[in-house]
Structure prediction request, 116 residues.
Amino acid sequence: MPTLPTHDSPAHLELLRLLEQHPDYSQRQLSVSLGISLGKTHYVLKALLDKGLVKAQNFRRSDRKLGYLYVLTPQGVHQRFKLTQSFLARKEREFKMLQTEINALRQELADQSTDA
Prediction:
């Protein structure tokens, strides 16, 4: 069973960033841009709406369809900032760990080449 995204998941951050840039995107456009299913997009968007991080406003896309404008609330902007900080810190830790692993592997290869 797939795990559902938590409030601090990368999907939440990416959706907040995308909505800030494209508040007029439909859920289908959001789904394509994020590279996730329409159902998961709806789930993540609903979670952001329920938490008050995003506000949906009706607008008319055409004579026959209603659309929504998704606007980040001040809380949503603050949450996007916090998530960005957290994501960056996590990626920097991963980067340092990878650098350490790469250096160890290089040393291992160097040691093996001198033994041969």
